[in-house]
Amino acid sequence: MSIQFQIEATRGPARLGKLTTAHGVIETPVFMPVGTVATVKGVSQDVLEELGVQILLGNTYHLYLRPGVDVVRRMGGLHGFMSWNRPTLTDSGGFQVFSLNELRKVTEEGVTFRSHLDGSSHVFTPESAMAAQIGLGADIIMAFDECTEYPAERERARASMELTVRWAARSKTYFDEHKDEVPWRSSRFSVLSSQNDGSSFTTENWEPGTGNCPTQALFGIVQGGMDRELRRESALRTVEIGFPGYAIGGLSVGEPREVTHEIVASTLEHLPEDKPRYLMGVGTPDEIAVYAKMGVDMMDCVLPTRAARHGLLFTSEGKISIKQARFAQDEGPLDPACSCRVCSRYSRAYLRHLYAANELLAQVLNSIHNLSFYLDTMRRVRAEMAGYDIHPPKSKV
Ligand SMILES: [Zn+2]
Prior knowledge:
This protein is an alpha/beta fold. It is built from 13 helices and 17 strands. It has helices at 45-51, 60-65, 69-74, 77-81, 94-100, 126-136, 154-178, 228-241, 257-268, 285-293, 303-309, 348-356, 360-385, and strands at 4-11, 14-21, 24-28, 30-32, 56-58, 88-90, 105-106, 111-114, 121-124, 140-142, 217-222, 246-248, 277-279, 298-300, 312-315, 318-321, 389-390. An eight-stranded parallel beta sheet has the order 4-14-13-12-11-10-6-5. A four-stranded antiparallel beta sheet has the order 3-2-1-17, with no helix packed on it. Helix 9 (257-268) links the parallel strand 12 (246-248) and strand 13. Helix 6 crosses helix 7 (154-178) and helix 10 runs parallel beside helix 13 (360-385). The longest helix is centred in the C-terminal third of the chain and has 26 residues, at 360-385. It is globular. The chain starts with a strand and ends in a 7-residue tail after the last strand. The structure holds zinc ion. Zinc ion (ZN) binds at residues 334-335, 338, 340, 342-343, 369, 372.
């Protein structure tokens, strides 16, 4: 058993759900902050807990290069290493290999690439990407895929999609044979973890040591470029392989937003209703709310933290650039409608000063507010969905 997914209310394609993982329950739709190298830049774990972060994402490519999978594995996986007892997810490493490595070489076997840190040569195959993710020990891990570049000719997008389907099957085979090797599986260590309210998480069938101890969950990834027909075929063939959850990858790679929207909508139609759906790497606050209502259950994006480091802040009154001179004497809070620890304490004038003076605290405070804004956006969406029709509990993964 890896995860359980229960849909609690629906209206049209939108769904409110609960995703139970080895390290806790996630209310969906959920926004997942990105902790690239086992840290959300500038924001400590206790603050992430206070913000109500339910699940954190780590990047396999970065963690594999530094500090290395063995270091993380020996410390109990990501949970133990970064002292984070709530759920985690790692990507397959594919996206970074494709976005950070112009000299990569792709073959049927896998991808040869050079480290962006020291130029050393490495190979990721579906098998080695699985081994890395099992060692990192996230609750949800991703099949190794090729992120098709944009724009791409149809034949190129087809070949890439088909390679991803073959890699998905190899990923699953390797995972099924090695899933018992996850660092936390053999012990009681952190499997029963504390939840937001401090209470202990337990599910009846998930007692460590009884043989029913949960494993990681491996998700498949749908590719196919910006071609609806290729996306349909990718979805059907990936579902045929069979995963407890499905991701839509290869979007937000430079295409216009209408295209992203259209591809998401047309891909969702071909994904099973009773499995969680994860839209990778997408979204402004407005967009994540829209995608949630289209039936996406999970989303991640570096935008809130990356924008924050550039002084770009999302507020209920729109996006603002805190560096602007008009805020120099502004005594008001960053966002009057936000109750985060930044907005309830500091003025726009102070935040503008920190940014202008290039102070570290500017990045910290800006990141906390933007994350809070994203998480609040999703909380509002979930609160609205709680008023939808109650859906009879359906199949479990
Ligand atoms: Zn705020």
